[in-house]
Amino acid sequence: MRIFVTGGNGFIGSVVVRKLLQARYEVRCLLRPTSRTERIDGLPLERVQGDVRDADSLRNGMADCQATIHLAGLSSWDEIDSPALKQVVEDGTRNVLQAAVDLPAHRVIFVSSVAAVNGSDKPEVFNESSEFTLDDPELKYAHAKRNAEIQCRKALAQGVPVVVVNPAEVYGPSDTAFVTAGNLVNFARSKPVLVCSGGTSVAYVDDVAAGIVAALAKGRPGERYILAGENLTIRQLASLFLQLAGRRRKVVTLPNNLIRRFTQLAKKFQVPLPYNASVIPYATRYWFVDGSKAQRDLGVMFRDARATLAPTIAWLKQEGHIA
After folding, report:
1. Which residue from 54, 65, 184, 213 has the fewest beta carbons nearer than 10 Å?
2. Is the pTM of this model over 0.90?
3. Residue 11: which CATH number?
4. Which residue range(s) make up the domain with 78?
5. Strand partners, 112
6. What is the pLDDT of residue 194?
């Protein structure tokens, strides 16, 4: 089978590409002229130039492939408030699905997020069938992914065998954009380590990539599969990092209302912040999920938080990002 991959040069996508090649799939990657490709350089794959925002380039790239893994998304938190969010996440997904409508039995794996499943103000564990109850307009990424999933359901009704996977917060080496590794760097640089009341489910990049590839063969069209390991509060995440990194620091939990208000005022008066303001609506909520369905149906396993963070920390030290 020849698999068309969008976002194959990214943090998760590059690991997916390697696993596809190991499984002897032929791989064709959609790449923009400005795409950084060091993660996939030297791999035996086909490159085609294009963009998920360009429907013609998608149709041309997908034409003689049997399936598409759609990973393309935003590469940093700085793009959350930009037009790229809707253009890439929502419009790009629509373009992929519309191209698939005209290709008989062309399977699509849409890589969504647990942010599209649900979040809460108090610890609560969600699964694939949980109701999405978030109405906070600041959760733009969550809503964009949710809207893209709605498009997947519409495409399913048009005959596209589409499967949705929802990765949790993914850690691992080569997170050069610091999408999640940035959290660990912030912990390393803070004295004391300041955290909020919130939580996340963590997953190792290789386990998530294995889940995506497994969905290609084993996922049932119309189903969602959460790709997630251990659930941790932000305080637990910080404490585990400090333990693994060999640091003795005090961890202080600040009230969420204080953090949110301070961030809003800083944005209003353009005061520089030591963190990305777009992260706060997510960090001050709990994104606890249950990944057992993927383990059961896709045959994948997710390592615990300690085994997830350890190689990430080793990579950060090796690259000189933390001492």
Report:
1. 54
2. yes
3. 3.40.50.720
4. 2-169+201-229+288-303
5. none
6. 93
